[in-house]
Amino acid sequence: MFLSPALFIAAVAWMVAQGAKLLIYAAVDHKFDLTHLRDSGGMPSAHSAFVCACTTAIAFASGLDSELFALAVVMSIIVMYDAANVRRETGEQAKVLNYMMKHWHQHQPELFGEELKELIGHTPLQVAVGAVFGVITGLVGGLIVY
Prior knowledge:
The protein has four helices and no strands. It is mainly alpha-helical.
């Protein structure tokens, strides 16, 4: 199905994290909402799980002293930093803009047809839990494949 076992392991980690997110939201909200399978943001971070599983699988395939592993670590850190900082801040800005639009009664422009998505990024805890999901999936997958 995939050319690279590392890519397959990463995809499994993403699916596990998204499935966990669905179950966590079902428990918290007391309803089963399948849209959480495609949503970004929330607990755990599927982005972190995806990149950390791939990085862990690369460690198995190439070794901890390889240039490829070093590149994977750097890219994982960038993705996780972005998820916890840049994308999270974008969500906070969306909350402010949505509030402004709801209270702009007199001249609400037609330009804003729907609310902006507020749950875009992750808290540091969500990123960390996603990273743990990814490393565990990468370890299990690496032990099986490599």
